[in-house]
Amino acid sequence: MLTLAMSAAALASPDARMSGCYDRLAGRLLARLRLGDAAATSPERPWWVAIAGGPGAGKSSLASAVCERVNAVSPGAAVVLPMDGFHYSRAELRALDPPDAGSLLPRRGSPWTFDAEGLCASLTRAKAASEGRLPVYCRVKSDPVPDGVQLLPSHKLVLVEGNYLLLGEEEERWAPLLPLKCLGSV
Predict the structure, then answer these.
(1) SUPFAM superfamilies from the entry (predicted)?
(2) Does the structure show a pLDDT above 60 at 121?
(3) Which of 49, 65, 73, 184 shows a CA-CA span of 20 to 30 A to 58?
(4) How many Cα neighbours within 13 Å face the side chain of 91?
């Protein structure tokens, strides 16, 4: 899995000004897929790329834009798997919160309000099988929706994006999913 860290300049740029960055990144990924980069992919296995950053950093925009560009050249080759689908639901947070504490729901979006175990287990299963259904976050419902995105065996590029995807204290959890870490600016 390739891991990307976004530079401060990239984080501050409006989405429209990022178009060149999206084009370059999609081009680099397409080139690696075409070359059959041994560290990246094989004909049977997709290449997994982690995109991590803070809230509002542009992870979802970057993942979506790169996915669109890759799929425009190689239809159906790429998919985005967002970590946001693994927010604990409002009902789960209320159940986890001590009576009358009201501390978890207002802090929603903090690392401990995500089902990291569920995310890791789902990604591990999906990666092993090269397919799976994962939840997505619905802003209208303000809750996760099951089976919102599907990983298919035909996907050759899997973009996994999330706030705490590579959180340092969780490094051991992600190690089996992230055998290759290449940190750099995009």
Answers:
(1) P-loop containing nucleoside triphosphate hydrolases
(2) yes
(3) 73
(4) 3
> CB–CB of 8/183 below 8 Å?
no
In the CATH hierarchy, which fold is given to the domain comprising 2-87+116-174? Answer: Rossmann fold (3.40.50)
Q: pLDDT, tens digit, for every residue of 12-59?
A: 444 678 899 999 999 999 998 886 654 544 556 788 888 888 888 889
Q: Any idea which residue has 């976050």 for tokens?
A: 137
Domain ranges of the chain: 2-87+116-174
Helix (H, G, I), strand (E, B) or coil at 170: helix
**Rg, Å, the chain Cα set:** 17
3-class secondary-structure state, position 104: coil
Cα distances (Å, whole numbers) of residue 172 to 60, 61, 169: 24, 27, 8
| DSSP H or E run through 125 | helix 116-129
Q: Rounded mean pLDDT of 59-85?
A: 95
* Mean pLDDT, the chain, integer: 81
Q: pTM here?
A: 0.81
**For the residues of 55-102, what is the DSSP string, one character each?**
TTSSHHHHHHHHHHHHHHHSTT-EEEEEGGGGBPPHHHHHHHSPTTT-
Q: In whole angstroms, give the CA distance from residue 142 to residue 15.
A: 24
